[in-house]
Amino acid sequence: MADKKIIRKSSLGELFKKIRSDGKRILAPVDRGGKILFEYVDSPGSIAPDYIQTTLSAKDTLLPRCEEMLRFRTEQKSVYLEESLNRPEPTLIFGVRPCDARSIAVLNAVYLINYTDDIYRQKIDTTTIVGVSCAKCDEYCFCTSVGGSPGDTAGSDMLLTQMDNDIYLAEILTDKGKAIAALAPELFAEGGDVDKNKHCADVPVRFDVKDLSKRLPGVFEDPVWIAQSLRCIGCGTCSYVCPACTCFDIQDETDGNRGVRLRCWDSCGFAQFTLHTSGHNPREVQSQRWRQRIMHKFSYQPDQLDVIGCVGCGRCSRTCPVDMNILQHITDILEVH
Amino acid sequence: MIGYGEGSGNRVRAIFIQKPEDADRLILDDRCLQNLAVYLPKHEVRALGKPAIVARVPVLRSIQQLVYEQQLKEGDIAVIGVSDDGQVLDFPDLKSVGDFVSKIPLTLTPDEQAALKKLEAMSREERWNFWLEEMSNCIKCYACRASCPMCYCERCTVDCNQPQWISVPAHALGSLEWHIMRAMHLAGRCVNCGDCTRACPVKIPLALLNQRIIADIVDNFGEKAEYALAAFKPDDTEDFIR
Predict the structure, then answer these.
(1) Which of B136, B77, B115, B138 has its CA nearest to residue B194?
(2) What is the DSSP string of A90-123?
(3) Could you say which of A321, B111, B215, B231 would form a disulfide bridge with B199 (CB–CB 3.0 to 4.6 Å)?
(4) Beta strand A91-96 with A127-132: parallel, antiparallel or unpaired?
């Protein structure tokens, strides 16, 4: 049961100072000419005042667009590993939307279950998530259709919900959340026994995700995938703005006899994604790649990892250059008989 | 028929009409900006048969360029042109598309020129920092490449790793190298449709790079410069080209 307190918005500056003194850097959404990006801030004054969703998700911190896996040097025919410089810095991410916080369960399922990825584990261990509930949504949001909600606590260490102009409900959810509250207990007051839902956006349920998962294998060969993806141009925008896409590519960069191995985001939208060395490509056309995106999120991941690979943030639909709208496409797939 | 139709919200999207009765879904208004020529080389679009394409001036220019580069030939497509003042243009063949569009100089709008002037007014350091900051947001989703009708290479330089020509990861150097390489590859080929900028999820003003090159070409070679690679002659006396 979460510990519920209230904190004044005007107290956040003091809290941020305590967090910084505690040795954590703070990432928060900042408005950069219409783009809302997570950037380092020292005070809440820099935070974007009004936004539905950040342009990129908080994934870029936990699973960066590119990051060092190891360093090496070669001498004659031998390769020697050198100490990696990729050390996580203690970080607090403030202002994560509940859908994005929920996506951490998907990242965890891929990077911690079956095989523990040490680089990711160190990042997640040293990162604290302070979520902020959504008071607004738009036509692209569908968190409630995939198990979330605008005030969902999953994935957050602390969740703030704005009750009025100066009051946040603070739900302290985990040990990391408790540690943050303990930095300035005087800022957290009693009075958290309130109904937060009336302060959260109303996101209608648009489809039955269990029904979708059940029906997807049966429509694998349906022409619907071709019809939907004719206009897809095969970029990686949907995957890269997605908080729950986890695929990566490995690149070695060398300079003389020294080198770095990097893990970089990859996307099933690219023609090269599954291209084999032989030249054979099991997904040689865009419709097969588009199908893979939907199957992976709504069929394979629920089957194999017991997690839905989509949190309904709507970023892929908002940013797609050619208006591939995932919600509309899912609705259409459900109408295939 | 490749044209525009209503999309989600107030957006429009490319639609592919395959039955006469569906032609009612076609629309054309100020929102219809996507350069539809990007679909002409696409495998699944080609598989539907010979396409007709709704083509405003940037699309017509792209078609001309694709013909120059031997990516399209007479008979491959039917073109339903739309002039800048909204008139439907009937083109019997691709040569007539080229003849029409060659008469319209590729010039920058006053807004585009003003944006370039602003960049030019910066010191070299300021300009360098401006681009470094813009490029720091690049996530290498390649929406710029995918949205561009001129980026039709089946294997892009950035996808080659033996040898690796440019750095692949989306770090500062990798992103900068990518966008410089792409701008150089588009020199004399970019039709200034603006799709790279519109497609970019982090709003990098990529078209500025191409527009600067277009301005340089106009300044140095005139508005009706012949496409250099189409004018290439094997017996050219210049050494560097061989």
Answers:
(1) B115
(2) PEEEEEE-HHHHHHHHHHHHHHTSSS--HHHHHH
(3) A321
(4) parallel
DSSP β-bridge partners for residue A118 = none
Neighbours of A137 (CB within 10 A): 22
- The number of C-alpha atoms within 13 Å of A172 and in the hemisphere containing its C-beta is 19
Average pLDDT over residues B94-103: 95
Quickly tell me which residue has 């097969």 as its tokens. Answer: A288
**CA-based Rg of chain A, rounded to a whole angstrom?**
21
Mutation target to probe the B interface, by most B beta carbons within 10 A, among A231, A316, A324 is A231
The answer to whether the beta carbons of residues B56 and B79 sit under 8 Å apart is: no
Structural domain boundaries, residue A100: 3-334
* Residue A308, burial from CB neighbour count under 10 angstroms (0-12, 13-18, 19+): buried
Helix (H) or strand (E) run with residue A149 in it:
none
**What does CATH list as the number for B110-221?**
1.10.1060
The identity of residue B216, as a single letter, is: D
How many cross-chain Cβ pairs, A to B, lie less than 8 Å apart?
A: 107
Task: Tell me: pLDDT of B241 over 60.
Answer: no
Percentage, residues of chain A above pLDDT 90? 93
Q: What total number of domains does chain A contain?
A: 1
- What's the Rg (C-alpha) of chain B? 19
C-alpha angle A326/A239/A173, rounded to 5°?
A: 90
Q: What is the 3-state secondary structure (H, E, C) of chain B?
A: CEEEEECCCCCEEEEECCCHHHHHHCECCCCCCCCHHHHCCCHHHHCCCCCEEEECHHHHHHHHHHHHCCCCCCCCCEEEEECCCCCEEECCCHHHHHHHHHCCCCCCCHHHHHHHHHHHCCCHHHHHHHHHHHHHCCCCCCHHHHCCCCCCCCCCHHHCECCECCCCCCCHHHHHHHHHHHHHHCCCCCCCCCHHHHHCCCCCCCHHHHHHHHHHHHHHHCCCCCCCCCCCCCCCCCCCCC
Q: How far apart are CA A216 and CA B57, in angstroms?
A: 42
- Model-level ipTM above the cut of 0.90: yes
Phi, psi of B123 (to 5 degrees): -70, 165
The A-side interface with B (CB below 8 A) comprises 32-35, 37, 55-56, 65-66, 139, 226, 229-231, 233-237, 239-241, 249, 251, 253, 262, 264-265, 267, 270-272, 285-287, 317, 319, 321-323, 325, 328
User: Where does the pLDDT of residue A114 fall: very low under 50, low under 70, confident under 90, or very high at 90 and above?
Assistant: confident
H-helix segments, chain A: 12-21, 59-62, 98-111, 118-125, 175-183, 209-215, 224-229, 237-241, 286-295, 301-305, 315-319, 326-334
pLDDT at B81: 97
Q: Which of A237, A217, A205, A203 is nearest to A331 (CA)?
A: A205
Q: Is the pLDDT of residue B165 over 90?
A: no
Please list the residues that pair with B216 across neighbouring strands.
none
The segment(s) of chain B belonging to CATH 1.10.1060 are 110-221
